[in-house]
Amino acid sequence: MLPTTDIKNKPDSQTSTNLHCFHCGEDCDTPEIHIEDKVFCCDGCKMVYEILNENDLCTYYNLESKRSGISLKTGKDISDYEVLDDADVRRQLIDYEDDTIVKATFYMPQIHCTACIWLLENLYKLHSGIAQSKVNFLKKETYITFHKSETTLREVVRLLASIGYAPEINLKDIDGDEPKKTNTSKTFFYKLGVAGFVFGNIMLLSFPEYLGLNKSIDGNFARFFGYLNILLALPVLFYSATEYYQSAWLSLKQKRPNIDVPIALGISVLFARSIFEILSQTGAGYLDSMAGLVFFLLIGKWFQRKTYDTITFERDYKSYFPISATRKTGSIGETVALTKLEKGDTIIVKNQELIPSDAILIKGRANIDYSFVTGEAEPIRKKIGETIYAGGRQIGDAVEVTLTKKVSQSYLTQLWNDDAFTKPASNFNLMIDKVGQTFTVGILIVAAITGIYWLINDASVAINAFTAVLIIACPCALALNIPFALGNALRILGKNKFYVKNTDVLERMNNITDLVFDKTGTLTSTSNNQLVYEGTDLTNEEQILIKTLAEQSSHPVSKEIVKTVDEKRKTKDGSHNGNTSTPQHLNHRVIGTGTFKEIIGQGISAIVGENAVRIGSEGFIFDTEIDNSRGTFIEINGVVKGFFTIKNTYRFGIEKLIIDLQKRFKLSLLSGDNDRERGNLGAIFSPNQLHFNQKPADKLAFIKNYQNEGKKVMMLGDGLNDAGALKQSEVGIAVSENLNQFSPACDAILDAENLPKLSLFIHYAKRSMTMVRIGFVLSLAYNIVGLSFAVQGLLEPVIAAILMPLSSVTVVVFGMVSTSLLGRKLGL
After folding, report:
1. What distance in Å separates the CA atoms of residue 162 and residue 44, rounded to the nearest whole number?
2. What is the pTM of this model?
3. Residue 724 CA, distance from chain mean position
4. How far is the C-alpha of 144 from the C-alpha of 667, rounded, in Å?
5. CA angle, 503 as apex, 501 and 506 as ends, to 5°?
6. CATH 2.70.150.10 fits 317-417, yes or no
7. Helix axes 287-305, 797-825, angle to 10 degrees
8. pLDDT of residue 135
9. How many helices (H) and strands (E) are present in the chain, helices listed first?
């Protein structure tokens, strides 16, 4: 059995103080930081309250039932924004600039409620230099306009950071090779708007025709409305419908006719036939049908293209790297943009900062966490003169490194030079293309035979028969089937926090044969790991000593040690007292004045009461360069008592999911970690399915080898180290615990909480494709019935123009209703 944790049923941890920060609502260790009766967890939160209070903006706290503020315990160093004064960096970040104002857009993942919107749209009250600020809540973006004479880009960002809304700015934003994000869909919506406007107005002008206008009496009006309809229809033909003509032409040039060929023919025939009838005064034409056809086809295309604007499906290492580094010149450190770093530059890397390029350590004690790149969670000790690769994160005191390569040429960028990141989005011939090729050729042959037959036997019927065939056979129902049926399926999956990039991905899911899982952060939870103690039993006094020292550190492991000791003592107290509801208050010991020491990333020590206590890594406790990273050791009065190790917590329901998937797919697990979890995972995976110590390149090669064997692979991962494999796979799914802040290159993003539903999601995607096939059958049935009359010359074009949209509506309604009912049946 896997060591899983049911997160939903896990009791909330309790604190001994029961105090909550007035600004952000987080627990407060002590009431020392306060203003009158308002307690704050840190000086940052207190400062934000003072800023808001001074500017009469405390309404912010009344807009939500819970505290709305952002915690500033781990706030960004204001000095990090010095690079925003660089002219080149500034030019990349702003949207517009003239002699008086500057406009800029900032991404702020912290935006989460109405209070955030209210505060950010009242920035002008905090600084007179800000002219306007507007928030796009769905995209978590803020658009700010400020006066050049009164403030600068750097000052605006510093203001945002000071109130807890530091914008997310990374290397991708300032890289000159990366074009600034533009709204490429704007032209498409113009085309959709034109088609909708024309369709509505032509129908309005055609009402006299619908109501039986007596042309012998009001012939002038009929001609006038007919000519006006022609003028209105021209923008639809030459603007709104251009995508279909371009697609049809390209497919014919490649000798692979697609579904857009008969669509383009149908539109052209409707327009030509209408022009003939209106100019010859033999009829009113079918321009309303033509405009309506284009309008609904564009709606279907929009529904198919529609994705989740709040989520980024394409991200590489540039999206994670900061925009600046501290370059050392002589004895002076200056903040520069990463794009300006050169080979041979010496930079200072502080605690928790990323190494931006391959480098050699020249000063300091490096403790490098490569989990960002490899997935291996344990830090690696580096000596002076050793190579440190890009993407490693320094844990501990600042070090100095000399770059051996430019940022764009590092080891990390080799992943993004792989063909996986330039390959087409799909390895499959999508269903609509397969159907389109056969359908197009068939319709052209039927239309040609019909025209030739009637030219020989009755030329008066030939034009009607030929045009009726092309109109009735216009595959608008086929073209609308997939976007509406699968588009509705995307909506239903999105409601269940499975965000699929587009309908093509659902089609590819239908062909999957193999599933490949990453372990750390995918099968395991990154936020619910447990500490396990190994060593001699600790007395009550020793536990109090350990807890007292650990409380002095803000390191995550120290916090977990405090929580673990608390829970152990509470359990013990509850069992002795027969009361498990409210444990008694835990005792503390006094830390000796001036004795507390902390070496960041290594350990802490102090005199607690009259006892010398040390907590830290193996290298810290034993004072050696050799560190096997077995855990966090405890030493009291010179005696090592034992150590705490982090135990992976597998997500609730993972075991059942894997067992279910094993019945339908071949599974594999690729992990960047060592094989210490082989025993746990061996309970549900076969030994030959487990692969450990896998680097990013190894994962990518693994997927390629599977594909070379003809397998269709779905890959599930969570980190940058999985990005190559995710991109190479037929379907790459990023599993994320924070949908707003994380999304590597992938085809879909799955909320980690709903990972146990993956099997159900795959089943729903397959069943949805079955509904699409049934829709195709319905559409083809309409075409067969209509064509049987059209080839005989028994179907007037006006009847064909009515039957065509009727078949489309039927297929669209069937697709929407069937996928909705299917989702409801499966509990989605």
Report:
1. 8
2. 0.64
3. 16
4. 49
5. 90
6. yes
7. 20
8. 86
9. 25, 32
Nearest to 473 by CA among 511, 435, 510, 446: 446
The DSSP call for residue 61 is G
**Residue 276: pLDDT band with limits 50, 70, 90:** confident
Q: What confidence tens digit (pLDDT) does each residue in 209-230 have?
A: 655 555 555 567 777 878 888 8
Which tokens in the block code for residue 811? 């297929």
Helix 431-457 to helix 476-495 angle, to the nearest 10 degrees?
160
Closest-CA residue to 776 (of 800, 805, 807): 807
What does the pLDDT look like over 191-208, one tens digit per residue?
888 998 988 888 788 766
According to the CATH classification, is domain 78-169 in 3.20.20.70? no
Torsion on CA atoms 730, 735, 739, 743, rounded to nearest 10: -50
Residues 6+ apart with CB under 8 A from 268: none
Q: Kindly report, residue by residue over 500-526, the tens digit of the pLDDT.
A: 887 788 888 888 999 999 887 788 876
Question: What are the structural domain ranges in the chain?
Answer: 4-50, 78-169, 185-303, 317-417, 497-526+653-762, 530-578+587-647
In percent, how much of the chain has pLDDT > 90? Answer: 6
- 161-176 tens-digit pLDDT: 888 788 877 666 556 5
pLDDT, tens digit, 9 for 90 and up, residues 443-462: 667 777 877 777 777 766 66
**One-character DSSP codes across 617-671:** -HHHHHT-S------EEEEETTEEEEEEEEEP-EETTHHHHHHHHHTTSEEEEE-
Closest Cα partner for 329 from 342, 350, 346, 344? 346
Q: Which of 65, 95, 244 is CA-nearest to residue 156? A: 95
In CATH, what class is 530-578+587-647?
alpha beta
317-417 matches 78-169 in CATH topology = no
Q: Which CATH number fits domain 497-526+653-762: 3.40.1710.10, 3.40.50.1000, 3.40.980.10, 3.30.450.20?
A: 3.40.50.1000
Sheet holding 597-599, edge to edge: 530-535, 639-647, 632-636, 611-616, 603-608, 597-599
Interacting residues of 824 by C-beta distance below 8 A, sequence separation 6+ = none
> Do residues 611 and 545 touch, judged by C-beta distance below 8 A?
yes
DSSP state, residue 124: G
Q: From the CB of residue 393, how many other CB atoms can be counted at a distance below 10 Å?
A: 18
- Asked if 726 and 712 touch (Cβ cutoff 8 Å), the reply is no
